Input
Amino acid sequence: MSDLTSEKSEFSKGWKILIAAVVGVACGASPIPFNMIGFTIEPLLAESDWTRTQILLPITIFGVVASLLSPFFGSLADKYGVRKVALLSLIGFGLSFAAIALTPSTQGASSLYIYYALWMFVGFVSIGSTPITWSRAVNLWFFKQRGLALGVMLLGTSAAAFFVPQIAVFAIENYGWRSMFVLLGMLPLLIALPLGYLLFREPRPDERPPELATVDGELTGMTLGQAFHDYRFWLLFASIAIIAAFFGGAYINLPAILSDRGLTAQNSASVFGVLGLGIIIGQLATGALLDRFWQGFVAFPLLCLPALSCYVLLGDTITFTLATFAGFCLGFAAGAEGGIIAYLAGRYFGMAHYSKIYGFLYVPFGLFSAGSPLIYAYVRDTAGSYDPMLSVGIAAFILGGGVLVLMGKYPVSFPKQDTPPQHVVVTA
Output
C-alpha cells in the first residue's frame, strides 16, 4: 500500500473519532475555564467585596489541581480505556462546573472559600476531558498523518475561544454570572457527551496502523519507568516547563502590555482576533509539517516565534502593525505547542503507556501556565514595566525550543517492558 493510500485509509477509518475528539476538546476542561474566567471580574466586583486577584485566583487553583492529577487520569485511560475516562470526565466536568453557581452570597471570606473549593473540585474530576485522553485515541487511529490529525483535534480549543466568550457574555447580561456556569456546564453534558458516546472509541487491534503494534497485536512503547530513565523525556519536560513559564503570562497579560504601549482596547481586541487566527493556522500547519519532517526542524523555529513577539513588545510604544505581528506569532506558537507535545509523546515513547506519560508531561505545562500570569503581573507591579519578563522571555523561548533539537531521531522500535530504554533502535 502506498503512503498516499495509507494516509487516506487512516482518515477514512478515523474521521468519526476525530470529530468526537474535536467536540470533546472544545467542550472540555482545557479551554472553557480559561476562556470565561475574565468575564467574571466585573460582575463579581460589583456584587462582592473580593479583589481582582481573588477573583482570578480560581483559575490558578484549578490549573494546579488538574495538572497534578493528570498522570493519574492518564494511567486510568491506559488501564481502562480512553473512552470510559473521557466520557465520565465530561460528566464530572459538566456537573461540577455548573455547581459553581451554588456559591452562596458573595459577601465575606466564607463565600470566597466556598467559591475556591468548588473550583478545586472541578480540577479533581475534569482533567480526563482534556487532550490527555482525546489525543490517545487519535494517536491510535493515525500514524502517517498523526500530526495533522492532532492539529485538527486541537481546533476544538480555537473553536472554544470563539463561542465560550459569546455564551458567557450573553448569560451574564441576561441571567447573571451564576447562570453562566450552568449554561457552560451544559456544553459537555448535552453536546460532547452524546457525540462521544456515539462516535468515540479506541481502534480494535486489527484497525490500528501497523506501525503501532507488534506482530502479536500488542501496542509498543515504553513504560513510565523506562521513560523516566530516558534523557529525552526530561528534555521534553524541561522544554515544556521553560516555554510555559513565560508563554502563559505573555498571553494572558497581552491586553495590559498593549495598553501600557498606548494601544486602545479596540486595538487590543483586533490584535486578539489575529492571535486567534494564528492559533488555527499554527495547529494545522504544525501538524502537517510534523508528518513530513523531523520534529527538530519544525518545533525549534516555531517555538522561537514568541521570542520575536517579546522583542517587538519591548519598549514604551508600539505601532498597531507590529502589535498585530506579535499577536500572530504568539497565536501561531500557541497552536503549535499543544500538538507538538502530544505528537512527540507518541513518537518517542510509544502508545503502550501513552496517556500516563503524557499526563506527567502535562504537569509542567499546567503548573507553569497557571503561575506565569501572576509572575508577569507581580513584575509589572514592582518594576513598573513588563520589560524585565519580556527580555528574559526572549532567551527562554529560544532555549525551550532549542532543547528539543537534542532529542535525536525517532525510535522505530521500543525495548521490552523489563529492559532499560537505552537499547531503542533509531533510524534517520
